[in-house]
Design goal:
By secondary structure, the protein is of the alpha+beta class. It contains 15 helices and ten strands.
Length: 357
């Protein structure tokens, strides 16, 4: 089936699960024309439907609760309960039980499609597998004040970045969220004594663009604080496999066994509520060109993924056995990412040719 047809079907399904912001969905359609990398970010539903055929042998790898929509820009920073700066995967909207190899393949595919990444595709594949294996064997969170101090220069917010953050907040348009969103933010998302100043709407994300997204801007202890509420829908993996389940695994991974989670992150009334701050942010390639510039950083991404998968203790040993290179050869991830990238690029070119304008 063509990509355009699948996109129409998925968006009909999406409208059944949230009040889609049609103007934002149109922006998503426009962004999908920018590059194959942006297109990949926006179309996990298509990946979920095709990847088992594109990489047929990997569909037999042990299943594990997976990130699903993993890519180079699905990493960021937050503060844990002790106020420590933590780095890692920070979006689990599409979490589902999936053959473990597909998280690795999607991450490697995103690196292959990213423009100007100075790490070769084979080096990316090797670094991901090395980091992933280490994360499975010795899982732990990535703490930037302790073991991973080397990473701080790559992910620390600059003064220019802080100015950009405050400028974005200042120019967000006023909005009136549904009452369940206000109740969720004000009863569970804001600290005691915080006074809401206003609510605003926000346009952000790749695959989630089109879902309602609000920001609460409040005053507390002499300064401003922010909470974001983003609509959460079932994983597109469920859509792709005709699974009617509406259960979300978002918090199962965000609060996994080997995580040091953001204490403000929660799911309430079908919205993800999280703290927004200049130093609690997603790391985007366009804004932070140095954030992913070495095999060392790619290895760290693999490590964090391994630590996430290691939280499923029953699957961990099966995955470690499956990773034995003798079973699949040294280049299995490189080869799978090449095939997946070719499929994504074919869909991307179809969208540029036949998609709505």
């Amino acid at each position: 089936m063509s990509f355009v047809s699948d996109n129409e079907k998925y968006e009909r399904w999406l409208r059944e699960h949230c009040d889609v912001v049609e103007a934002d969905l149109k922006k998503k359609h426009e962004r999908m024309r920018e590059s194959a990398f942006v297109f990949l970010r926006a179309t996990f539903f298509r990946w979920a439907k095709r990847i088992e055929r594109v990489c047929e042998k990997l569909a037999e790898t042990p299943p594990v609760l997976s990130v699903g929509d993993l890519h180079l820009e699905n990493f960021g920073t937050w503060r844990d309960e002790e106020g420590r700066l933590v780095w890692g995967v920070n979006d689990f909207d599409e979490a589902a039980v999936i053959p473990y190899a597909f998280d690795l393949v999607r991450l490697a595919t995103s690196a292959r499609l990213a423009a100007n990444l100075p790490v070769g595709n084979r080096a990316v594949a090797r670094a991901l597998i090395d980091g992933y294996s280490d994360g499975l064997e010795r899982p732990r969170p990535t703490l930037l004040d302790e073991r991973e101090r080397w990473m701080r220069p790559y992910v620390a917010i600059t003064d220019q970045g802080r100015d950009k953050f405050w400028d974005e907040i200042a120019h967000l348009p006023h909005a009136n969220p549904p009452d369940p969103v206000k109740v969720g933010v004000e009863s569970a998302g804001l600290p005691k004594g915080a006074r809401p100043v206003r609510y605003a709407s926000r346009v952000a994300g790749g695959g989630s663009l089109g879902r309602p997204r609000y920001v609460a801007i409040a005053k507390w202890n002499g300064g401003k604080i922010f909470r974001e509420a983003k609509a959460l829908v079932p994983s597109a993996w469920h859509w792709a496999h005709d699974d009617a389940s509406t259960h979300s695994h978002f918090l199962d991974l965000a609060r996994g066994r080997f995580r040091s989670p953001d204490p403000f992150l929660r799911v309430q009334n079908s919205f993800v509520i999280r703290r927004m701050a200049a130093d609690s942010r997603k790391i985007n390639l366009g804004d932070d060109a140095d954030a992913v510039n070495s095999a060392r950083m790619i290895t760290a991404m693999g490590f964090d993924l391994g630590a996430i998968h290691a939280g499923a203790s029953e699957a961990r040993e099966k995955i470690l056995r499956d990773l034995d290179k003798a079973r699949r050869g040294d280049d299995w991830l490189y080869d799978a990412a090449r095939k997946a990238a070719e499929a994504v690029e074919a869909d991307y070119h179809e969208w540029r040719r036949d998609g709505p304008r």
